Amino acid sequence: MTQPRSQPPTSSQAPSPPPSPPRKPGQGAVPQTIRDLIFTLVVPIAVLSPNLLGSGFSVADQLGGGTQGNVRAYLAAALIPVVYVAWDLIRNRNVSPVALLGGAGALVGGALAFWYVDGFWYAVKDSARSYLLGLAFLISAGTRVPLFRIFMDAASLNESPDKRALTQQAMDDPQIHRALANATVVFALVDILSGLLNSFVNYQRVTAEFGSDAFNAQVAEVNAIMRLPSFGISLLGVGIAFWLLHRATVARFGPGASLLEPGSLAGRVGQLAPPAPPTPGQAD
Predict the structure, then answer these.
(1) How many degrees, rounded to 5, is the angle at CA 10 between CA 222 and CA 88?
(2) Do 241 and 187 meet the contact criterion of CB atoms below 8 Å apart?
(3) 199-209 residue pLDDT tens
(4) Among 112, 129, 131, 210, which is 20 to 30 Å from 103 by CA?
């Protein structure tokens, strides 16, 4: 019987650090995006590779070799992005809702690294963050605070208090709240779709036994293959969600109104009261 094994998160599941405040001129030589790619994709793939760039060098060999060395290399590849995300949060003191959501996802990914499975269950595990996030968003769509609202809150963080108040008041409007719920459902479904695609690719390509050189090499390959498609699918989901929200905002407050431009809401929010429901027995 095949023993369960541990596997590093695939590219679609590798936690991505939350956006950090704009860097001041001359503050750091490496752009944030490049640094993110290095620590969440390039370094993990290098750690997993049993023959780095054809040089014969293997991190697993340096960590003891054999099954133990491969398991340790797998854990290192899975935890390096988690540590990087946590360091980025602490360094930038970023406590926005989006940052906290990213941090929570990183912690989930780190914890799952210690679930040693392969085959079907590895394919499920590697997409678990997408499934859990999608489920949380779906549930929130039926509450007073659809989770897609956190993206709108983050977008207005740098605005003045008066403009932020306009955005909040607009999002409290029943028509806009419905649009936020719809956007949340779209985001959730697209994230789950991304997870299903990632699981399918893992199930097809990660077939070796956990703890072997081949297993780590296959996981590294899927990490590289899935990063761009996963990013594209997520971008599509966010784009559709924002489009639904923008369309509802224009329908409610008129042409030119946008939640991303609070100034465009001035003089419009609060001016259009929703129609009062008919009272029982009211004549036609």
Answers:
(1) 135
(2) yes
(3) 999 999 999 99
(4) 210
Distance CA 147, CA 134 (A): 10
The alpha carbon dihedral of 230, 234, 240, 246 has a sign of negative
The number of CA neighbours under 13 Å toward the Cβ of 96 is 21
Contact (Cβ atoms closer than 8 angstroms) between residue 183 and residue 242: yes
| Span 28-71, pLDDT tens digits | 566 878 888 888 889 999 999 988 888 889 999 999 999 999 99
| Cβ pair 94, 18 in contact under 8 A | yes
Structure tokens given for 90: 């602490």
Could you count the other beta carbons within 10 Å of the beta carbon of residue 114? 10
Average pLDDT over residues 198-223: 96
Residues 188, 171: Cα–Cα separation, whole Å: 19
Provide, rounded to the nearest whole percent, the portion of the chain with pLDDT above 90.
53
User: Average pLDDT, whole number, for the chain?
Assistant: 84
Q: Are 223 and 44 in contact (CB under 8 A)?
A: yes
Query: For residues 283 and 250, what is the distance between their CA atoms, to the nearest angstrom?
Result: 33
d(CA 49, CA 52): 5
Averaged pLDDT for residues 1-27? 47
**Token digits of residue 69:** 């060395």
